[in-house]
Amino acid sequence: MEKTTVIEIGYVRDHRTGNFIVTLIDESFHPNSNRRRQQIVVLPGAFFHILTKIDRRSIANAVYVTLEQAADLGFIVSNFPTIVEAIA
Fold first, then answer.
1. Number of domains observed in the structure of the chain
2. What gap in Å lies between CA 54 and CA 11, rounded to an integer?
3. In contact, 1 and 88? CB cutoff 8 Å
4. Which tops the pLDDT comparison, 41 or 80?
């Protein structure tokens, strides 16, 4: 079994533009804290090209992605606390 570093993201599709609003979920702080969260807007073509296992009919969800996928989406992940999980 191979170990891969993964992080959690949440996404929702904007019904007006069709773009995805993607948020990097940082479990190290409370949701009501004043710390800044990374949130980006991603075009649907890029979103599904990078995250190939997501169903194209999905409009909102939270999923685990690799650091490479998060960086490809546009997140700054160099100083992000990581979670290591085994992926078969």
1. 1
2. 11
3. yes
4. 41
